[in-house]
């Protein structure tokens, strides 16, 4: 089955999403969670297939991208679920600080429009635990960041796996 | 063939430099006071929150406004950016061995460990400098692996 080929990306993407919801983990991992997951997915695939062939750039970037996509979907789902039950999140908690910073810039109507939008989102979340604009915002930002960082992790996984193979078999 | 590879290699080095420049400008933009970027500050904050805890106490502050990422992440991205710029300007082929990647990652891991167990309090400059080492080493490691696979390996195969 073709889908089994991408199982490591699904597993690692899910793992990264679960870890990203654990309080405190982000303090340690910073930007390393998704790249590490992508690198592990490459190494996992190599273990599953028992392959000694060197991993191509296309495959590594593809695996990284897929890990990023899966982690984006799971992270967004977990975030929306937690927001739905708690009716609060980091976005709402940091709203006063965001407003304070934006007021400092004296941008005029620009800041008012921007703040109006985010206050509407905050109100919707506090009332219903859900906001479609917020969903779009986190989905797009997660997609943008995780797909890029996933590909970086994929490239890292490829270089690690290929060098391991090369050290084991210098002819490769 | 060689000149074509040389152009490709240059292209491979310019692209990450542009991306890294955009990324670095993105997280220091509140400090640069660029009106068009400041108006999307909430979205920017959310974008960078995916990759950093954004703890104000652990971030560099400029004009009373914290960077959008912590000191360690600032170091990591600056490290990668400076490495990308230096390697493009010097135009050298660098193959970073795995052991050097591990070696250059150790200071950052030790810093995380030491401040977490309370040996010393969080220090922005230690965090950013160890992050800088890690960021530059990981960038050089990935770039050298890509260049090896795309150009050196290909050249060896052609020579055979």
Query: What is the percentage of strand-forming residues of chain B?
Result: under 5%
Alpha carbon gyration radius of chain A = 20 Å
- SSE string of chain B, helices as H and strands as E: HHHEEHHH
Distance between the termini of chain A: 29 Å
Query: Which two chains have the most extensive interface, and how many residues on each?
Result: A-B, 41 and 39 residues
What class, by secondary structure content of chain B? mainly alpha
Mean pLDDT of chain B: 85
Total of domains of chain A: 2
- The low-confidence parts of chain A are none
> Oligomeric form of this entry?
heterodimer
Percentage of residues in strands of chain A: under 5%
Explain what this protein looks like in three dimensions.
The complex is a heterodimer of chains A (172) and B (160). Chain A has helices at residues 7-21, 25-29, 33-49, 57-86, 90-93, 95-104, 109-128, 132-168. Chain A has 172 residues and is mainly α. Chain A folds into two domains: 3-86 and 134-168, no CATH class; 88-128. In chain A, helix 3 (33-49) crosses helix 4 (57-86) and helix 6 (95-104) runs antiparallel to helix 7. Chain A is elongated and about 60 Å long. The two termini of chain A are 29 Å apart. The model of chain A has no long low-confidence stretch (mean pLDDT 84). Chain B has 160 residues and is mostly helical. Chain B has six helices and two strands, in the order αααββααα. Chain B has helices at 2-32, 35-38, 41-49, 71-90, 98-116, 124-159; strands at 61-62, 65-66. A two-stranded antiparallel sheet of chain B has the order 1-2. In chain B, strand 1 and strand 2 form a beta hairpin. Chain B is flat, with a radius of gyration of 18 Å.
């Amino acid at each position: 089955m073709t889908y089994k080929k991408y199982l490591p990306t699904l597993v690692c993407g899910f793992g990264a999403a679960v870890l990203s919801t654990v309080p405190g983990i982000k303090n340690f991992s910073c930007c390393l969670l998704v790249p590490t997951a992508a690198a592990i997915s490459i190494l996992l695939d190599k273990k599953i297939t028992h392959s000694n062939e060197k991993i191509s750039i296309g495959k590594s970037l593809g695996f990284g991208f897929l890990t990023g996509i899966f982690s984006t979907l799971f992270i967004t789902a977990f975030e929306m679920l937690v927001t739905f039950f708690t009716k609060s999140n980091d976005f709402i908690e940091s709203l006063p600080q965001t407003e304070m910073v934006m007021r400092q810039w004296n941008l005029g109507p620009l800041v008012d429009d921007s703040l109006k939008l985010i206050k509407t989102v905050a109100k919707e979340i506090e009332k219903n635990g859900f906001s479609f604009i917020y969903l779009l915002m986190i989905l797009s930002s997660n997609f943008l960041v995780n797909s890029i960082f996933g590909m970086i992790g994929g490239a890292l996984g490829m270089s690690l796996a290929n060098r391991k193979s090369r050290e084991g078999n210098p002819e490769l | 063939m060689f000149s074509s590879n040389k152009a490709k290699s240059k292209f491979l080095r310019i692209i990450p430099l542009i991306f890294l420049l955009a990324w670095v400008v993105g997280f220091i933009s509140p400090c640069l006071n660029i009106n068009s970027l400041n108006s999307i500050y909430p979205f920017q904050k959310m974008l960078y929150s995916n990759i950093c805890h954004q703890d104000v106490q652990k971030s560099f502050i400029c004009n009373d406004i914290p960077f959008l990422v912590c000191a360690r992440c600032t170091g990591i991205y600056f490290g990668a950016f400076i490495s990308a710029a230096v390697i493009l300007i010097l135009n050298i082929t660098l193959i970073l061995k795995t052991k050097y990647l591990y070696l250059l990652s150790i200071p950052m891991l030790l810093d995380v460990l030491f401040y977490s167990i309370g040996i010393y309090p969080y220090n922005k400059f230690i965090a950013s400098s160890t992050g800088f080492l890690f960021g530059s080493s990981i960038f050089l490691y990935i770039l050298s692996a890509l260049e090896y696979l795309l150009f050196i390996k290909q050249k060896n195969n052609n020579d055979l």
